Amino acid sequence: MTTALWNDLAPAPRPAGWGAATHVAVGLWRIADPRGVVVGHVRAIATEGGWRFAAERFHAATGGFRRLGEFWSSADALECLRYAR
């Protein structure tokens, strides 16, 4: 499920049957697994070449988010969050 709260130009990520994306800010989606456990965020980044998608995960020790990688497709960013646990 994807919920849009803002008029956002960035394309929303679509988890392929394994979770849900909730729109939490412009260009930012919270990704949860099928049990509802948040696994991270996908952030859309506008570039001259098109949209890039960053997979981010919360790091409790530093109290901030760590970028796991940037991808040309939101599907790749979602797969990074799914398997990098």
Notes on the structure:
- This protein is mainly beta and 85 residues long.
- It has one domain (2-83).
- It is built from 1 helix and 6 strands.
- It has a 6-stranded mixed β-sheet, covered by helices on one side.
- Strand 2 (20-25) and strand 3 (28-32) form a beta hairpin.
List strands and helices in order, with pairings.
Layout: E1 2-3, E2 20-25, E3 28-32, E4 38-47, E5 50-59, E6 64-71, H1 74-83
Parallel strand pairs: 1-2
Antiparallel strand pairs: 2-3, 3-4, 4-5, 5-6
Write a concise keyword list for the protein shown above.
six-stranded mixed sheet; 85 residues; mainly beta; 48% strand; 1 helix
What is the CA-CA span between the terminal residues?
22 Å
Strand content: over 45%
Number of strands: 6
Mean pLDDT, nearest integer?
A: 86
What gyration radius follows from the Cα positions, in whole Å? 12 Å
Total domain units = 1
How many alpha or pi helices?
1
Structure summarized in a few sentences:
Helices cover 12% and strands 48% of the residues. It is mainly β.
